[in-house]
Each structure stands twice: as structure tokens, then as C-alpha cells.
Amino acid sequence: MQKQDIDQILAELGELKCKTQKEIEEARVKFLGKKGTITALFEEFRTVAPELKREFGRPLNELKQKAQEVIESLKNSVVDEAAASAPKTDLSMPGDDYPLGSRHPVSIVRQEIVEIFRKFGYDVAEGPEVEDDYHVFEALNFPPNHPARDMQDTFFVSAGHPNPLLLRTHTSSVQVRAMEKMQVPIRVICPGRVFRNEAISARAHCIFHQVEGLYIDENVTFADLKQSILLFAREMFGPETEIRMRPSYFPFTEPSAEVDVSCNICHGKGCNICKGTGWLEILGCGMVDPNVLEASGIDSKKYSGFAFGMGLERIAMLKWRVNDLRHYFENDLRFLKEFETSSEV
């Protein structure tokens, strides 16, 4: 080992210049790596005579420390230079506009209907989607041989049981639970998802959504039902909307009716949406059958009431002129983006 070896490495460190992190790493390996020049000097120092160790030991340690300082200084200078050349961030500039999602059209219609009936004094009631036969059929006056009890129309979860479980076919089951638990007067609407064993097409689906309403009190008449439906239709479709009621049949209401609204597209003149009639069917309704009241423990001689139900997809189709029910279930962003403005209302 010669002193000029240490001086030579010191001179190289003094002239060392690196512009990238890669060059700095190469310099570190050259001087301080396992096979580096300074490491080699320390290996050689082991063989130096004892009387010479004092002469070379201190300069070697100072050389290693100097090399570490130079490497660290080069690292900091490269980082500072990169930061200086990087584009400046203007914190006063507005942030990036990230597109947000919007509510589904069925959800928009559901919320509108709920808000309308809240103004009329109705509460919202909800119930399980997997129901028992009693709440879906028996308590609603469906006879044992009614077609709705057949597996061709209903998704049964457990069959062959005295009270089998099934996917509810209407939210009327929630009305039954409301009559069982609530005190009269009862005024509720029941929004929710329902299931029927139907072929999927442009106008039908095995999954859809309903909002049903129930009002029970003393001296409730069919005139009260008609006025409630008329007020709802005008709130939903516009103040000029008219309704007509046609006789119909439902097991749980008597008398029963189908309700049409005047077409808000052609204003009653006739178009392809209303099939030239000037009317669009929106819901079914009727006076609650006394048997349904008695099944839930309500005195049918003292109380009366009405019920109604509508499909949300149907209302949405009329509101936005959607020609295919399947669009609501396909999650096509091109279709859903059309309702961004409506979801902000």
C-alpha cells in the first residue's frame, strides 16, 4: 500500500461528476462496492505491518468518509436539478373535472313518486323480497287454485311446504305486514323489487319494480281513491292530465279498476305510443276487500280502504318515451348518461 494510492482516489473523487442516478450508482460501486477501489485498499490494509497501521489507518477512514459524502452530495444535486426542471404546480388552478355517475332512471321515478305521496301524508313501508305464501297470496284473498300460485308464474324458493317461500310477485305483501303491525288509520306506500316467471321482451321482464299504496280509515270511499289517483297523475305528468277508470278484477280489491292517463305525448290526439287511443294505462287500484282487512285483524264493518299499484318501469317508459324495457337492466352507459340531468333535479 502506497500513500499515493489514497491521494489518487481522492483526486478522482474531487473530479467526479454525475448527471443521472444511474451514473451515481456506478460511481458508488466503483469506489465503495465489494470490489471497489476503496474496499480493495481496506483489504490490503490487513496485511500492512503493525508499525505502519497508524500511518495508513486514519487516511483510509477519511477517504471512505469523503467518498460517502461525495456520493450523497451528487444524489441530492441530481434530485434538486430534476425538481427544478419539473413543471410547476399551480395550486390556484381548478382541479380536474372527474365525471360522476347518475341515478338510474327507475330510481329517479321511484323518488319522484315517493315525494309526491309524502306530500299527501303517506309513509314509506318496506318488506322482504323472499316472502312466504301467506303474505303474498293467502292474506290477499288469492284462492288455492289461482294461476299466480302456479310455478309457471311465480319463482318458488321452497315448494311442497304448507307455507312455502317464494320471490314476492308484488309489494302487496308489504301492505299485509303494514296492516298486521300498524294502527288504523294506515296510509303507506310500498316501493320495491318484485319477480315473476315471465319471458323477457321489450315490454316484459322477470324482474321489475313497483310502488303500491294503501289507505285505511273510517268512511274511506271510491271517490277518495279517484281523487288521490287524479292528484298523483297531475303531479307526475302535468296539471292538464286527465284520468279514466275501467272496471277490472283483482283478488284483494272489490270493486277494482284499471287507471289510464291522457297521453302526455300527443295530448289525447292519438300517437304510436298510446296506439292512437289518446290514453296510457299506468296502474291498477280498488277498494280493499273486506276479507283482506279481516285476515289482518282489522274490523271491516268499521274500517274501509283503498289500494293501488303501479310498475316503475312502466312510468319511466311513459315519462322518457323508452321503447324497450330491457334497457333498464343492461347497464349501457350510453343509455344511462341520458338521465344525468334528471338525476340532479
How would you briefly describe this protein structure?
This protein is an alpha+beta fold and 345 residues long.
Order of helices and strands: HHHHHEEHEEHEEHEEEHEHHH
CATH architecture of the largest domain: 2-Layer Sandwich
Q: Counting H and I runs of at least 4 residues, what is the number of helices?
A: 12
The fourth-level CATH homologous superfamily of the largest domain is Bira Bifunctional Protein, Domain 2
Radius of gyration: 40 Å
Termini separation comes to: 86 Å
Quote the beta fraction. 15-25%
CATH class of the largest domain: Alpha Beta
Helix content: 25-40%
Could you name the ranges where pLDDT drops below 50 across 5 or more consecutive residues? none
The shape is elongated
Mean pLDDT: 85
Could you describe the largest sheet, including whether it forms a barrel? 7 strands, mixed
How many structural domains?
2
Derived from helix and strand composition plus strand pairing, the structural class reads alpha+beta
Strand order of the largest sheet: 1-5-6-10-9-8-7
Oligomerization state: single chain
CATH topology of the largest domain: BirA Bifunctional Protein, domain 2
